[in-house]
Amino acid sequence: MAGVMSPRDSARLIAETAKDVTVDAVGVGKVAELIMDLVKKQSFSVKMWKEHELNPKTMDKAAVDWVFLADTLNFSFWSADDQKKYVVKYGGKEHTGYWSLCAAINRALDEGVKITDPMFYANISKDKFLEVFRSDSDTEIPMVDERIEVLHEAGKVLLESYNGSFVNCIKQCDKSAQKLLQLIVTKFPAYRDTATYNGKEVSFYKRAQILIADIWGACEGKGLGEFTDIDTITMFADYRIPQALVYFGALKYSNTLMEKLKKDTMMKTGDREEVEIRGCSIWATELVRDEARKRLDADPETKGAEINAILIDHYLWDYRRDHADKMAHIPFHKIRCIYY
Ligand SMILES: Nc1nc2c(c(CN[C@H]3C=C[C@H](O)[C@@H]3O)cn2[C@@H]2O[C@H](COP(=O)(O)O)[C@@H](O)[C@H]2O)c(=O)[nH]1
User: Fold this and answer.
1) ipTM for the whole predicted complex goes beyond 0.95
2) Closest to 6 measured CA to CA, from 185, 187, 166
3) How far is the CA of 153 from the centre of ligand 1 (A)?
4) Which ligand 1 atom is nearest residue 320's CA?
5) 77 contacts 98 by C-beta, under 8 angstroms
6) Which of 85, 98, 269 to mutate to test the pocket of ligand 1 (most atoms within 8 A of CB)?
7) How many C-beta atoms surround the C-beta of residue 141 within 10 A?
8) Which atom of ligand 1 is nearest to the CA of 236?
9) FRET label pair with 17: which of 10, 40, 233, 273, CA 20 to 30 Å apart?
10) Ligand 1 atom 32: the closest Cα is on which residue?
């Protein structure tokens, strides 16, 4: 987008001028150390993505259509009351948060509903949406109206300009993640995740970047998922990674901000504190990547090992999920928006 700073440059600028959030070098080193251990155990690669039971296993158009639908709806799963969560039962398990979305998509496909086909969702009615994404608890999925709107928008763009599949967007971008990123944020307005900060147009592009990363993961970096510049994708500025970064000490909040977060103060898109949390999270993850890279290359055993901001992000996100209790005392910022 013309006149908009890249997520990496935005993150550096925000981290340099933020008032209520700071990136801490000692904490960054701690996370880098953690990543090193994982790389040594060889449990750190693009193949991790498909290990999740709900993620698609094929590496074809069906997988890309699934990922595009999931990431078009991949926002705002938190609930104000922990006892009232949107829940989807699938594969004999109860899924919440982001995984409830994936479970609902898979449940629909099993029921013969062509939910990943834009012909189906470009004009989906509210009744049909609520049937497909029905809850197995008393709490329905948050932001129903906004989710229907973004489905209509994305479905129409795919049908009008890309012959009904995101595969055709990928094919126009010569295996460049940055070209695909620009196509997504230009053609699909709901993915245009930007803000104004100190008079500058900054970007986070969280869903656009995770869409590219999920296609890279689903296809194990090959075929439709092959991107020559995938390492230029940054961490995805959601509301969970900051919790993990604060937990490990890589991110620090001022007392004022911490008090606000503990009181569940609602934020709005573009609030200075929201921009500082998101920008500093991206920057902290960039520094973790650089530090881990340095340490990996200093050790003949791990020199040149595969590592990038995507893999670090997924590790931190999965870690937060798997250790939710340990991090429950660290508040996450509350916001209702379609960007993350
Ligand atoms: N930064 C980042 N944000 C991510 C993800 C994912 C799912 N990725 C999975 C697929 C492969 C990976 O290995 C992950 O297992 C969802 N989200 C965001 O989190 C929030 C929901 O969180 P909770 O309430 O706990 O379910 C919401 O904003 C959603 O948009 C990620 O990977 N990174």
Assistant:
1) yes
2) 185
3) 23
4) 25
5) yes
6) 98
7) 20
8) 1
9) 233
10) 314
Q: Ligand 1 center to residue 298 CA distance, Å?
A: 31
Is 214 considered catalytic here?
no
Please say if the pLDDT value at position 44 is more than 90: no
Would you say 275 and 337 are in contact if contact means Cβ atoms under 8 Å apart? Answer: no
What average pLDDT does range 67-93 have in this prediction? 96
Per the CB < 8 A criterion, the answer to whether 328 and 65 are in contact is no
pTM: 0.97
Contacts of residue 66, defined as CB under 8 A and 6 or more positions apart, other chains included, come to 56, 105, 116, 218
Question: Residues 121-155: pLDDT tens digits?
Answer: 999 999 999 999 999 999 999 999 999 999 999 99
Nearest to 252 by CA among 260, 261, 242, 262: 242
Looking from the CA of residue 100, the nearest atom of ligand 1 is 26
User: pLDDT tens digits for 288-314?
Assistant: 999 999 999 999 988 989 899 999 999
Question: Phi and psi (nearest 5°) for 156?
Answer: -65, -40
Instruction: Pick the residue whose CA is nearest to atom 16 on ligand 1.
Output: 98
Centroid of ligand 1 to alpha carbon of 288 (angstroms): 19
> Which one of 65, 214, 238, 313 is the catalytic residue?
238
Higher per-residue confidence, 167 vs 301: 167
- Which residue's CA lies nearest to atom 24 of ligand 1? 97
Q: For position 82, what pLDDT does the model report?
A: 87
